[in-house]
Amino acid sequence: MNKKIITGLALTKKITLTATVAAVLALQSCAGEDVGPRIKDAKQETVYESTQGVVTEVEEIEPGEDYKIIDERIIDDKEKSIAIVHTLEGTVDTLSLKKLKDDNSSYRHSGLRGILYYSLAASYFNRSLRNVTPNQSNYKNASAYNKSTGLKNNLRSSATSRRVNVPGASSRGYGSGKSFRSFGG
Question: Which of 29, 134, 138, 156 could form a disulfide with 148 if both were Cys (CB 3.0 to 4.6 A apart)?
């Protein structure tokens, strides 16, 4: 009987060669023109981003919980956007929207952030002006609401636009696409 014995060094060389060939083949199969994530039925959408800032003036109605917007103005520098808060105690607080956006800690006016999200100040917090919709119930009177609605058009006319890919209906949410797995019996 003629047995062929493979030494440890020869076995290591063969395993290394096989692993290298497998790795090269795997990398070649992964490389393609489009290596980004694939979104089913993606569509292009125009996103408008505000270039101007907002000064939103609010009045405290209930201590720390309820506020009403009394006035809004557009300013040139978006980074200087502020909220002017008239408190029940008669004081006036000026808050930077940048600080409110960056600071997740609770400000003493816990309801303030919610009011600002449904005013023109939302253009500072949201990237897309499509999501900026003044809510009439957040305004002290109809004239303040009507003024803000008109100013929204001014924000949009001076906004920058860009095209983005957004997922289509079948790409959104858990279970919205078809699964290749079968469960149950």
Answer: 134
